[in-house]
Amino acid sequence: MSILDRFLHPPAPHVEPVGTEAAARLAAIHASAFPRPWSTLDFERLLGERSVMADGLFLGRTTKPSGFILSRTVLDEAEIITVAIVPEARGKGQARALLTHHLDALSRRGVARVHLEVEEGNGPAIALYRRAGFRETGRREGYYHKADGTRASALTMALDL
Question: Where in the numbering of this chain does the N-acetyltransferase domain appear (predicted)?
Answer without folding.
Answer: 13-161
